[in-house]
Amino acid sequence: MDEPNFANSVALFSPTRPNAAAGTFATINLPYPPLYWGGHAMNSRGAVVITATVPDSSGGSNYRPLLWTPSVDNGTTGTTQLLPIPAGFSSVSPLYLNNRNEIVGLAYSPNRNGPVPFVFTQGKMFAIEGVPGVTGGGWPHAFNDAGQLLLSSSQAGVLYLLTPQAGTGTCPVTTSLLQETVGPAGGRVNIAIASAASCTWSAAVSDPWLVPNGSTTGTGNGTLTVDVPANSTGAARTGYVTINGTTFTIRQSLLPVVSFYPSSLRIVIGANGVTGPQDVQIRTSGTGVVTGSAYTIYPPELKVTLAQASLPGSMTVSYTKGATAPLSGVYQVTVGLNGADQTSLSLPVTIEVQPAGTATKPPFGSLDTPVVNAGALSGGVAVTGWAMDDIGVEKVEIWRDRVGKEQVYPNGKVYIGVGTFVQDARSDIEGLFPTLPQNRRAGWGYMMLSNVLPNPGGAPGNGTYTLEAIAVDREGNSASLGRRVITVNNAASKKPFGALDAPGAGATVSGSAYSTSGWVLTPRPAMIPRDGHTIGLFIDGVPQGTVSYNQLRTDVAGYFPNNINSDGAGGSLTIDTTKLSNGMHTIYWVAIDDQGNADGIGSRFFNTLNAGAAVAAEPEAPRTEAATMMDGDRLETKPLGRVEFQMAGGGTDAEWEGALVVDGEKRPLPVGSTLNGRYGRFYWHVPPGFRGDFELQFTDRATGAMQRVTVGVGRPGLEREER
Questions:
Q1: 316 and 279 Cβ atoms separated by less than 8 Å
Q2: In this structure, what DSSP letter does residue 7 have?
Q3: Euclidean distance between CA atoms 528 and 202, whole angstroms
Q4: What backbone phi and psi angles, to 5 degrees, belong to 452?
Q5: What rounded mean pLDDT belongs to the chain?
Q6: Predicted structure pTM score
Q7: Cα 72 to Cα 361: distance, rounded to the nearest angstrom
Q8: Which residue has the higher pLDDT, 284 or 398?
Q9: Quick one: CA torsion of 387, 389, 393, 395, rounded to 10 degrees?
Q10: Which of 201, 338, 352, 452 is paired with 253 by a 20 to 30 Å CA distance?
Q11: Can you tell me the distance from the alpha carbon of 542 to that of 643, in angstroms, rounded to the nearest whole number?
């Protein structure tokens, strides 16, 4: 390649891709004659600072810094600014340049014994003198984007970290994070501000492409919203929002941005057990192929398994208890990345080692549904609640008391099944126990088919039954979460009933032609149309098609011989699981008989895992009308209810994205939900175990519009059992 003429210029080398050895040269022309001394520096935005010799008024010359700023981040054209010299000094030489175009270097004067550090900030030069124990001011060694400066000292073994103070006349504020990265398509950044109730704050942005949405001033705690448009510059860019002296960095990349959810984990090591394996979602924003490889360095007992090399995806983090426990502390799980904005991403894992002699503790929690003395239940009955432990809950088992002369387990009970834990189903419990491991998956749920409960001397599924939920922790301790006496009366029910067989509860499935199956019946004199056109299959609240019905199930026919469809109760439907994102989903049928009676069948959780799976495909265009929700609207539903609504202004040119907001943190949308971003349509089948208020936030990247909708689940009087 041709090298440039260095006479009045500096060569700017741009690699063909990040960290590549091949690239092109561009020339930065400078307005002053050369001689360039040392102290050249460049930041990640592509700005350059250079020491130049500049004539002075006496006919000699001195050193002056030249700051060259590209027109766009990492561009090859820009403007040059000659910076001033601090009063009382004759020359300055820059050493470090941060991403706010602030400069640290050394200033020289014949009246001083050695160089003195300086900082260029807010358009002014400041000499740093008078640091205790530092001869002449010290020597700069590092400088970060927050303006912190590391100085050497004349005292052996002593370094100084200098932190700038906020400007006078302002009160301090803090933000929940100090930076956020936005993908090339743009988006909205909400900066949570914490300050004293009497504190008045004001915000300013560094670049015109950062557009404040709403007020830039406030008092006390508040939120500053900044819109980031799509990046059409062809280069990554970085901007800053300054709030009373606190700087928040917004970076917009050209490659997909990778993030973890949850963003940290906690593992507790006890005398008799350790917190179980934990799943972490690996999310990507933007388009492009991203691959990763996961590893840990220390302790060796901390293990990580990546579900697949292609991302988005998930990884499992676990700890295998060894002979020697590590010290309590924060360790790192790292994923090396290719094709992403980052070269790697680390997940902090806090390991807590309980002191020797710590007494073992049983798990605790609650059985929430069925409600106390629930009566006249039929069909599927949701058994739900929450459970926590100081080390971790292994499982929640559902049992019932013996009926008649049934065979029982050694505990004298009849086993029913195991509840499924669901992420973010109970944020209220998470808030009550913020330091316990696995607190984001405190909620659990199980669907029990009441039609098959025994009834000596009568039709099954009728009578009084006592249920009990028992939690078992990682140390083998168990505790009852509660007992419920329920009355089941399927004989009086006119609704269809049945169960799903595949996928099994909590099963992991894959492939483009996975066969779902189950069975459904309805009480006489009604029947299910034999072609199955009234049995719809739903995944995450979105209809997938109708079931192929009238398949012989000899087991069902033997148990329920008197229903019209007993000789053809089975049904199936093939689905393409590669169109679903890897992770947890919900599935259920809705069956309607020939007399208009309808009910949900077999609601359960299942997981998908497909190699090379991308982000879930958009569902088809909505075919039905749905209520339009406005910003700030609220709606109520019951457990196992289905929610469907339309964003105001949704259309075929929209780019809606959504998040569940918990205490100001944006998380993935709830399990069992689907957002059609193109049409602004949201679907949610509320799975068993969810309870409370769920604040959903939707943003249209095309227009910057934002809507917040709160879905209340399980308000008294809306319980499914009380029907």
A1: yes
A2: T
A3: 65
A4: -100, 5
A5: 85
A6: 0.70
A7: 58
A8: 398
A9: -40
A10: 201
A11: 10
